[in-house]
Amino acid sequence: MDSKDNWGGSLSDDKTRKATVSKIQKPLTPQESSLIEIHGPNLGKNYRVTGKEMTIGREQTNTILIDRDNVSRTHCKLDRIKGAIFIEDMNSTNGTYVNDVPIKRERLRQGDLLKIGEVVFKFISGGNIEGLYHEEIYRMTIVDGLTQVANKRYLVEFLDREIARAIRFGRSLSVVMLDIDHFKQVNDTYGHLAGDYILKEMCTVLSRLVRKEELLARYGGEEFIEVLPETGLSTACTIAEKSRRMVERHVFEFAGARIPLTISLGAAELSPMAADPMNLIRAADDKLYEAKNAGRNCVVG
Known about the structure:
This protein is α+β, with helices and mostly antiparallel strands and 301 residues long. The chain has helices at 11-24, 129-140, 152-169, 183-190, 192-207, 233-249, 277-293; strands at 32-39, 46-49, 54-57, 64-65, 76-81, 84-89, 96-98, 101-103, 105-107, 113-116, 119-126, 173-180, 215-220, 223-229, 253-254, 257-258, 263-269, 299-300. It has a 6-stranded antiparallel sheet with strand order 2-1-11-10-7-8. Strands 4-3-5-6-9 form a 5-stranded mixed sheet, with no helix packed on it.
């Protein structure tokens, strides 16, 4: 027969209650976390973030090695506090950036982009870490790691579908190709980190004009393409001019320096002579070449 406690309940019931509460209060298992290199020499590499302190830098002794001149010997470190992952800059020369913002110490959250020198990592965290990793690897096949707009592979696939649809329904389709004027001078004057900032910031600016059914993609280097379904050449040139003005008027500022920037653009419309992706791109590229020869910072269509 069970003995009674002071409140009239049995002591065995009390033990049961304590056991149940103990199970409820059991500490949660910390979520797994990783850094995936989405832009850099080790594209796609997965770095597991453990509970121990991890350092990132160009010295061989670092947990994550980035052998680049614009990365400090010990650039930054990662540590876990009460289940959360924090990144701390170690007084690096060129700074540590989270989502393009320079930080001293910052908590990392799912999907954050971490930039160290010219290398970009994506932070993933959750119970299904393997699923998140494979999802990000797939995303890397269609998205440019630095600018976060579509890459060349996805551009060609998108154009292929839109050309077929335009021909089937007898609709217009135009492409605008743009190039940053004197981009090499930007890199030479302000450094490659500033050049990376320019590319990403310009895409942020241009994305404001891109509708849901349209596409902005990085074709290569400092060349980008806007795909404009159901758009004739005249309207495409108007959109290109808006893009040109937006970039020219935008204040690009990196490390305290304002960097003037202009772009040249060429527009082309789908025709029987350019009824495949590469021919249409080539037609826009020819117009871009004319814009450069006309003095740059202009639109030719």
